[in-house]
Amino acid sequence: MIRDLFGKALIDYHQGNYTEDIITSTNISDEDELPLPYLFRDFKNMPKLEQKALQLAKGSVLDVGCGSGSHSLHLQNKGLDVKAIDISKGAVEVSQKRGVNNVQQIDILNETQQFDTILLLMNGTGIFQEINRVGNYLKHLKTLLRPNGQILIDSSDIQYMYQDEDGGLWIDTNADYYGELDYYLSYKGEEETPMKWLYLDFETLFLACKSVGLNCEKIMDGEHFDYLARLY
Fold first, then answer.
1. Overall pTM surpassing 0.90 (yes/no)
2. Does residue 192 contact residue 119 with C-beta atoms inside 8 Å?
3. CA nearest to 85, candidates 66, 100, 70, 72
4. How is 8-55 classified by DSSP, letter by letter?
5. What share of the chain in percent tops pLDDT 70?
6. If we measure between CA atoms, which residue out of 180, 162, 179 comes closest to residue 171?
């Protein structure tokens, strides 16, 4: 049962009730703050990977996991036809109130429209959840592409998080893929139901795309083991 603490935090910030940030952690990392103002950033305050993805967006756009609607609003203001979706009821409510014209509470696997550009940003591979589900998600995304359509997706190779001080890796080769994490979120003392969250290195994404008939090219590397890819 998802409590939608993420959506609750977005609503609080939008309504001027900002008193504290979201706290996140994973099974391999300590607690970290996710500042609410960052979720409402404008184009000039976005990472270069996100800016590049928005510059490459064309035609009709699907913004998957739209959050507060920052990406959708930027593209909408450029004159693009944007549909924003999120599984968070609070995110959808905030996006609407901020001016996103077409926003729906829907899981990407239930989407049926076709688009020229599909955006999956802020570690877009996260929604795949587990390595054994990547193929199914990619197959579905492929059905949502119009002829000559593209998917713009970012992720990170988090192998660096398993390095010891000597540069050696302590990855358990018998365990699941190292980018498959348990993700924990809390807000104002409440804890969200833990979820799976997937970080994919580029080579693994490339091979997964190849297996379902998608081309995959790296557009650029970010500043911290992250990258932006274009699937078509």
1. yes
2. no
3. 66
4. HHHHHHHTT-----EEEEETTEEEEEE-GGGGG--GGGS-HHHHHHHH
5. 94
6. 162
